[in-house]
Amino acid sequence: MTAADMIAIYNALRGALSIAVFRAWPQIPSPLPGCAFSLQSWQRLDDGSARTDILVSFRANSPEANDGYTADARTALQPLGYALSRAEDAVEYDTGFFLRNLVFTAWADVPVIPDPPVPPEQLYPHVFRIRNADNTAWLLLPDVLDMSFSPAVRAPIVQQPLSQDLSMLPQLDTGKVAPGSLTVSARFLYEDPAAERVRELFFNSGDSYFSIRYRSDRFYRNHGPVTSFFASPLGLEFTIACRTVFLRVST
Fold first, then answer.
1. Which of 47, 74, 194, 210 is paired with 54 by a 20 to 30 Å CA distance?
2. What is the CATH number of the domain that holds 66?
3. Residues 224, 131 share a domain
4. How far apart are CA 161 and CA 171, in angstroms?
5. How many Å apart are CA 47 and CA 29, to the nearest integer?
6. For residue range 164-195, what is the model confidence (pLDDT) as tens digits?
7. Residue 101's beta-bridge partner residues?
8. Is residue 113 part of a domain?
9. Which domain holds residue 23?
10. pTM of this prediction?
């Protein structure tokens, strides 16, 4: 808090009020009507910010006059960053004059705390869509709850003659590739077009392109048959075997 700050407060009050404005001195009462102001406190807080409290006191013949002075002071000090934080009425018992004590507070060096980043799984939740029957549009499945995968596997094949010593490690080879799969869980919606399309593919042994999105704004496409399907008011769940790797698509 500097002399320049106090001068700015004085000029603001003097320009807004029609009464005399003085820097407060305990031994000298303000004139009637009059305004006196002083630095009540300045404090540096633990977070590095600083709080300044300015006491503004009015002395008048009526409480209504102090109401008007209060409104003018609030308007005058607002551009300087001060807001009214406390107010009280009082009376000079030896004279009967009415007093109004106001405390205006300003903050400085307040640290800016950025909003925490939105987790990508909230920004881009699970999205599943599948091509319609004539392959002209995507059908979006609403309210997807979860998506999980099972990796493609190649089962080991033991190549060991019966006469070989069983204490030795067997010779192994790999079998055919069993494709990976995607399992989708969603809320049940009666006659949802996307769910009905998956149901149709399951019962007709069909194959269709589908795409997914998660933790990113990009879709990834694959295709394959529907190998399991269940839909009831308890929920929707189905599995699609993946014929190839997922490829990123622009739309």
1. 47
2. 3.30.2000.10
3. yes
4. 10
5. 38
6. 666 666 777 888 888 899 999 999 999 999 99
7. 57, 88
8. no
9. 3-108
10. 0.57
